[in-house]
Design goal:
Ribosomal Protein S5, domain 2, alpha+beta, 6-stranded mixed β-sheet, Heat Shock Protein 90, 22% strand, 8-stranded mixed β-sheet, 4 domains, binds adenosine-5'-diphosphate, elongated, Rossmann fold, 36% helix, 634 residues
């Protein structure tokens, strides 16, 4: 029979899995059992929604058996089974969504612990087997098919025999070699151990023949006259796993470490989550939930590829693998399981969005997540900051989504870099405010270090006030949604009135404006429509010039709109304002030049504008002409 080739991607993944110096080969059993369990989940769902099938929940089982002579391990299930077409599709290529990440980790030389946390799926069988045979009959079909492969070379599919629907995966275990022992997996005691370690919470009975020994009376009497006892071993077919899903167990029965282990296996993370949230709600709606807040964002988290959602169960029956309608979008990084007898088994995706029960559960869980994040922030700031590095952006986007309808839920979870060092929340900032201070000062820049060096920082820092350094592109939008925090208005130190002057200082400044009116008008005329206004600065101390904006569009927003695909945002331009420091020598030079040499004065204005643009991080319209102008001085 002609061998079919695996898809190229699959081949590469198989190669990596098989050839990695992988010390946790034992996870193959967990992967094969988990596939069997998934197939039974699907079958069970079908059976419940269609009682005419006459299949009872109690009929389902997974059997693990060993044949030492033939060196085979067989995992059988009576789940959905597969047609030959389905075998072709499912076993001929990788279905695993995170395979990209996995490959990356392997190529980076990840250690075996890291690899062990990835679901490498069906192919992991080839870590211990030199041949894998899958015999399967789809439910409803009367024909069985056999898929067989000896590894990367390819596979064959042929017709076969099978009495009932379901799947047998037969793994032919490799011979021991070069210090690699595979024979250990043919030991039922070892297999049993693996099932308990890795598959204990599988909801279907995993059965195995196990040898049980006991001292038994022989019915005879020994020489000493006492009843004679003998140690008898018998083979019994037994359920090996505990079967109760971890989230249904009482809190006191499950340790935090067990929950974390469950998380890593179930959600393919190789790091512990920062939090485990367990909810056992009783009342109008009863449900159990086990939620996890991951430490790091998956590689595709901020892309469209990321699939959020919680696993939905109805009394232990899986109804949906990823239901994205339980939690609000901004908490989409949360992983976990929700199980309620009040969830309908027949629920469809369309109905879900408006499902009353689901809405109530979701809103309750959101509150718990928020409370947990606040607890972390308060009690374990280092852990929170790790979490925040990964998902802070998501929370910020959540604030501006839907015109800020969720701002009150999220505003206390946000953190910003402070001019005083470290990260602070709005509450921290307001708590640190000086008595004389009335505004929450912030500056927007592309990085914290750039922000610190901006000319407009000086006058605020001189007062001893703290400044929030906003470096994410979403930040300005966020401030425009919030407007104030605990009654304190936000103040962009680049564009708004700082409110730092006394009445006297204000008067003085106004007099200055009047005094320099002619100079300002001259500069405005030279710059034309490039600027909306030229004015005497009230925020500059040592620096000569500052480019800022007036109106609602800031430079950061302008940049954001410009980069929008399609270029529709190109017209969104910030209105520029050039601020001049009247106490600076260049300002005096300008004044003199206006009197003596108007051409020179015009050049000074252009250089002032150019330098101010550079400091503000705004690209020059014509960098060549500008350079020529500056260098013509020499
Ligand atoms: P994953 O389980 O992550 O989807 P696998 O490589 O483990 O990836 O399995 C690929 C696919 O093969 C599964 O999604 C499923 O459709 C099918 N499959 C594997 N084992 C079984 C089984 N025992 N019964 C039915 N289908 C199975």
């Amino acid at each position: 029979m002609a061998k079919k080739q695996f898809k190229a991607e699959t081949k590469r993944l198989m190669e990596l899995v098989i050839n990695s110096i992988y010390t946790h080969k034992e996870i193959f059993l967990r992967e094969i059992i988990s596939n069997a369990s998934d197939a039974i989940d699907k079958m069970n769902h079908r059976a419940i929604t269609d009682p005419t099938l006459g299949i009872s929940r109690d009929d389902f089982r997974i059997d693990v058996s060993v044949d030492k002579e033939a060196r085979t391990i067989t995992v059988s299930d009576n789940g959905t089974g597969m047609t030959s077409k389905e075998m072709e599709k499912n076993l001929g290529m990788i279905a695993y969504s995170d395979s990209f990440e996995f490959k990356k980790k392997l190529e980076e030389g990840a250690d075996s612990d890291v690899i062990g946390q990835f679901g490498v799926g069906f192919y992991s069988a080839f870590m211990v087997a030199d041949k894998v045979t899958v015999v399967s009959r789809a439910h409803g079909g009367d024909e069985a098919s056999v898929w067989e492969s000896e590894g990367i070379d390819g596979y064959t599919i042929r017709k076969g025999e099978k009495d009932s629907f379901g799947t047998d995966v037969i793994m032919h275990i490799k011979e021991d070699s070069d210090g690699e022992s595979y024979s250990e997996f043919l030991d039922p005691v070892r297999l049993r151990e693996l099932i308990v370690t890795y598959s204990n919470y599988i909801r279907w009975p995993i059965r195995m023949d196990v040898e049980a020994g006991a001292w038994e009376d022989t019915g005879e009497k020994g020489e000493d006259g006492e009843p004679k006892r003998e140690y008898i071993t018998r083979t019994e077919n037994k359920v090996i796993n505990s079967m109760v899903p971890i989230w249904q167990k009482d809190k006191s029965e499950v340790s935090d470490d067990e929950c974390k282990e469950f998380y890593k296996q179930q959600f393919y993370d190789f790091e512990d989550p920062v939090s485990v949230i367990r909810v056992d709600a009783e009342g109008r709606i009863s449900y159990k939930a086990m939620l996890f807040i991951p430490k790091r964002a998956p590689h595709d988290f901020y892309t469209r590829d990321f699939q959020p959602g919680l696993q939905l169960y109805s009394s232990g029956v899986l109804i949906m693998e990823r239901c994205a309608d339980v939690l609000p979008y901004y908490f989409r990084f949360v992983r976990g399981v929700v199980d309620s007898p009040d969830f309908s088994l027949n629920i469809s995706r369309e109905v879900l969005q408006n499902d009353r029960v689901l809405k109530a559960v979701g809103s309750n869980l959101s509150k718990k997540i928020k409370a947990e994040l606040e607890r972390l922030k308060e009690n374990e700031p280092d852990v929170y900051s790790e979490f925040y590095n990964s998902f802070g952006q998501q929370l910020k986007y959540g604030m501006v989504d839907n015109f800020g309808s969720d701002k009150d839920m999220l505003k206390d979870l946000l953190m910003f870099e402070s001019s005083k060092g470290g990260m602070v929340s709005f509450a921290d900032y307001v708590g640190n405010m000086q008595e004389s201070q009335e505004k929450i000062y912030y500056v927007v820049s592309s990085s914290a270090s750039k922000a610190r060096n901006l000319p407009q920082m000086e006058s605020v820092l001189d007062k001893g006030y703290e400044v929030l350094l906003m470096t994410d592109e979403v930040d300005p939008f966020l401030v425009s949604i919030l407007r104030e925090y605990e009654g304190k208005p936000f103040c962009n130190i680049s564009t708004e009135d700082l409110g730092l002057e006394s009445e006297e200082e204000r008067k003085e400044a106004e007099e200055k404006d009047e005094e320099h009116k002619g100079t300002l008008e001259f500069a405005k005329e030279i710059l034309g429509d490039d600027v909306a206004e030229v004015r005497i600065s009230r925020r500059l101390k040592n620096h000569a010039v500052l480019l800022t904006t007036t109106g609602s569009i800031t430079f950061e927003m302008e940049k954001y709109f410009k980069e929008m695909p399609g270029g529709q945002g190109g017209n969104m331009k910030a209105s520029r304002v050039l601020e001049l420091n009247a106490d600076h020598s260049v300002f005096r030079a300008l004044k003199d030049a206006i009197e003596s040499d108007k051409d020179k004065a015009a050049d000074i204005v252009r250089i002032m504008y150019g330098q101010a643009s550079i400091m503000a991080g705004i690209p020059l319209d014509d960098p060549v002409a500008y350079s020529d102008l500056v260098l013509s001085i020499f």
